[in-house]
Amino acid sequence: MKIVPDTSVIIDGRISRGVESGDYAGATVYVPEAVVGEIESQANKGRQTGWEGLEELQRLAELADAGEIDVEYVGERATEEQIKRAAAGAIDAVIRDVAQEHDALFVTSDIVQAEVAKGKGIDVEYLEPEARELEELGIEQYFDEQTMSVHLKDGVVPMAKRGDVGDIQYQAIGETELDTETLKEYASEIYDTARRDDDAFIELSEEGMTIAQIRDMRIAMAEPPFSDGFEITAVRPIVKTTMEDYTHTEDLKERLLERDRGVLIAGAPGAGKSTFAQAVAEFLDDSGYVVKTMEKPRDLDVEKDITQYTELGGSMEKTADSLLMVRPDYTIYDEVRKTDDFEVFSDMRLAGVGMVGVVHATRPIDALQRLVGRVELGMIPQIVDTVVYIEEGDVNTVYDVTTEVKVPEGLMEEDLARPVIQVKDFETGKPAYEIYTFNRQVVTVPLEEGGAETEETGVDRLAKNEIEREIQAATRGPVEVELRGKNEAVVYVSEDEISHVIGKGGGRIQDIEERLGMNIDVRTLDELPSGSRGSSSGAGSSAGGAGAEPQGEVVTPEITSRHVILPLEKGRSGETVEVQADGEYLFTATVSRGGDIKVSRGSAIAEELERAIDREQQITVVANE
């Protein structure tokens, strides 16, 4: 009896078991060198299938030494190009040629390979892939009802994240350090289960890193050289919820059913964002909507009729293109992190698909800030009209996002009207923030309530700095600004500068008042109330002076013919920041996609910034809290 096995049955160990059962006793086994090359390539890439194939080859050699079979290695070794094209059938063709050449029984558990071989007149034995009962994995011994994730690494005691949602603690769950051998046994079991079971699959397989999904567990296995040691991390949801389990969701459910929405679910890591997203997905599905998910990896615990998609050809953009053909009513995007993710989210939303995205954010408003700089400002309310902030496993805040052409809150002059994004508390309807363009920069202004005792708001700072810039055009001396109300301010300048600021017949100050829509009283610096000096970023400030201690990232401005450029560290694109000179506020800006802040020369902001540079003040960029 002559046998030619393909790669699938070598990896499965089916030939050695056939010999031991008597089915292939005394057979001559022709092992194609192409199979050996494919298995060796997989083992070199750290894939468990490669190691399992090598173990089977060793068992066949032992059976040959015992005289139970004959083993011959035949054919040409697969080339690197053929191995790369294995999925396209390049190696399969070489193996079939070997079976035909030796007039041998071709044994495979690959149905496509079997059918092609039959079509070429080759004698084929197709072995049905073995269906194994999904037993408990070795790593599951580390889980209990309150365990969200298990972290196993060689040379370290087992660790886990345990507790209730919103109160998760990272803690040791054993006293004995793990060794590599034990972890490899766990990994082998995981690989085997993920390849064979209907309720499991390999999500990602790269050199040094494999991610598997088994039942409700997402398991990541890392090994050198990708990591500094062998490591297994297994994560699973500790609770499954419905929208009835959350507070403030009755009106939110009605909102989701009114029409297809753009929703961002935000919160800190471990707050329960994905758990809430799962509840939203199943609520929409139960309400008669077609719901799909986009995940990498796929780990949302949703009902079977909600199809979960991952990257298509390594790209979520391709996944989105496919979903647009499927036309779901809602798509759950878990998680939206990179600029590409936000662009895909935006494109699908603008195509009319209801979108629910999960984003990391430490404040509700930060979820919207992630869109600033990534999409056109005026499009944000069309992309996201609802923000749901999750804290300690429950709905903490819901924002309604709309746009309106109006004068921003705190500014008075009608000429200052512009498109303003209004962010309102969904439950009370009260405005919480306004987002708009001010002096060519996108600003996010909190709308705080209170009287004269209230801390200075973002609008106050904008107003004070705009007044100061106007006054600075009429004087080179120090300027201090004190707001007395929404449309009234007092300006303090040097005594010998008052006449320049007021102008002949009061013409200059009247022009400034008309431009700003405010009444301005001009006084000398001697009349400035005690303790008020230095409250604004006037020309009188100097490096090392009475200003606040500089904080944040220190930058070195670059001045070109058209711009003043503030280059920043990588990774700050889209972030809303304050620019300061020696710790004194200058303006608020949004970091561009290129990772810098550009201010057009000739603008009031650029003039103020250049004056600070000329005075050799330290320019810093501080995250806007």
Automatic annotation (TrEMBL):
GO-annotated molecular function: RNA binding
Pfam annotation, one family: KH_1
InterPro entries the UniProt entry points to: AAA+_ATPase, KH_dom-like_a/b, KH_dom_type_1, KH_sf_prok-type, Nucleic_acid_metab_PIN/TRAM, P-loop_NTPase, PIN-like_dom_sf, PIN_dom
Every PIN domain range: 1-115
Keyword Secreted tagged: no
The protein, known as: PINc/VapC family ATPase
Domain AAA+ ATPase: 259-384
Region span, Disordered: 525-558
Keywords from the UniProt entry: RNA-binding
Family recorded in the similarity comment: In the N-terminal section; belongs to the PINc/VapC protein family.
CDD domains xref list: KH-I, PIN_VapC_VirB11L-ATPase-like
Organism superkingdom: Archaea
Low complexity bias spans: 530-540
Organism listed in the record: Halospeciosus flavus
